[in-house]
Design brief:
By secondary structure, this protein is an alpha/beta fold. It is built from 12 helices and 17 strands.
Length: about 425
């Protein structure tokens, strides 16, 4: 029996399971539809516990971690909430949390890599990132040996560390510019012979991998929450939570109401907030002065069929804009309450929750899931030596020859 189909949300056509877009050119995401209508967790390690709702035909066992969900006491008490659940993504061995890059981007990179392996893909994978996604793909490629080109903004290079001694399969290129410049350059290179694009938000493996956050939260708490909080850059994590929630509603055992999505963005650079509210929340200096610039994406999948706008409308959700002062306060509040360090992006999610509580958008007795998208890096350093990935080449987004320079460097480095 076929495990899943991949369909266009606009025309309904079934595509090759590894497709990234509709062959008719429809302005729509593709979505995976699983034969198994009820979620049956397995005894496989890490996120593969949710194997039946992941678009893969095998697993990468080594290095796999997953979300760990628990009911909050101290943070919940501080906010006057009775039913707050924290979905923690990171390194926290005391709670059996072993996402070794301290970010939920591991949940995307492992299924994406598994699908590449199923296709016997030998081309060099190209990933553009502001840091966390790049770190996650470097982690899994160091395990599998898949050749990887990372294209990241120069200002994000400090995030490119690994716990692995051997990272010969990874080539790191920095761009003098922002995340969008990195995406643009990576897209040009990925279209060249010998390279392959991982797909970003269009890749069902990435979205359904992130969707396991909601699966874990619901299986742990036994029902769909009334509210779901997460900080977003592109908003793909919000789409993923929505898609997972629809599957859980169809399952029939966890409730019949979609959780309201509460998505947080970091000022002064909040494109999704601007698009949703119809206001201008993008400073000319973006992404400078953001609490965490991994949350900045100039061209998020907002209006595309199946994108952020549809997810918010379907769930009755909202987008919030968080100041640096609010994020700093929230980070301190969480870390003192829960006893683990969190990434700045996760602090924006906590600040979003604080805003919602103050505004009365959530009630004290309602079930709430707070997605801590990254944490435990300070804890990880106690157990592992972090190794900075070396930069193979630095280019400027304004250099017309940047694409050729990168291709030459990469092909020489990998002996292509």
């Amino acid at each position: 029996m076929k495990k899943y189909d991949v369909k266009c949300l606009l025309c309904g056509e079934v595509h090759n399971p590894y497709s990234l877009s509709c062959k008719k050119g429809d302005d729509s995401l593709l979505r995976a539809y699983y034969t198994a209508k009820q979620l049956m967790p397995t005894d496989m390690p890490g996120l593969w516990r949710y194997y039946n709702w992941l678009p893969v035909e095998g697993i990468i066992e080594e290095g796999s971690g997953r979300t760990i969900t628990y009911k909050s006491e101290k943070l919940a008490s501080a906010l006057g909430l009775d039913d707050l659940w924290i979905a923690f993504n990171g390194y926290w061995p005391e709670r059996d949390a072993y996402l070794m890059t301290c970010t939920f981007k591991d949940l995307e990179s492992f299924p994406t890599m598994q699908r590449l392996m199923e296709q016997e893909e030998k081309r060099i994978m190209v990933v553009a990132s502001a840091g966390n996604t790049a770190r996650a793909f470097a982690h899994v490629c160091s395990i599998t040996g898949q050749p990887l080109l990372l294209v990241v903004p120069k200002e994000s290079v400090h995030r490119l560390w690994t716990i692995h001694d051997d990272n010969h399969s990874v080539c790191l290129v920095t761009v003098e510019g922002d995340y969008f410049d990195a995406i643009a350059l990576a897209g040009k290179i990925a279209s060249r012979e010998g390279f392959v694009n991982e797909g970003g938000a269009k890749n069902v493996a990435r979205r359904d991998g992130m969707g396991t956050v909601m699966l874990d939260a619901v299986l742990t708490s036994n029902e769909l929450p009334a509210h779901y909080f997460q900080a977003v850059g592109s908003g793909t994590g919000g789409i993923s939570a929505w898609e997972a929630s629809m599957r859980l509603v169809e399952d029939g055992r966890f409730g019949n109401t979609l959780p309201k999505l509460h998505l947080g963005q970091s000022l002064p650079c909040a494109p999704l907030y601007s698009l949703w509210k119809g206001t201008d929340a993008i400073d000319a200096a973006c992404p400078d002065e953001m609490y965490d610039d991994v949350l900045f994406n100039r061209k998020p999948p907002f209006a595309v069929k199946g994108g952020v706008k549809n997810a918010l409308e379907a769930s009755g959700g909202d987008i919030y804009a968080v100041s640096n002062e609010e994020a700093s306060y929230a980070q301190d509040l969480f870390e003192k309450s829960e006893g683990i360090d969190i990434n700045p992006a996760a602090a924006v999610a906590v600040a979003t929750l604080v805003q919602a509580v103050k505004a009365g958008n959530v009630k004290p007795g309602e079930k709430i899931v707070l997605n801590i998208t990254g944490g435990g890096q300070k804890r990880l350093i106690k157990d592992y030596e972090l190794k900075q990935l070396p930069v193979s080449l630095a280019v400027s987004a304004k250099d017309e020859d940047a694409e050729n320079m990168v291709v030459k460097k990469v092909t020489e480095g990998f002996g292509v």
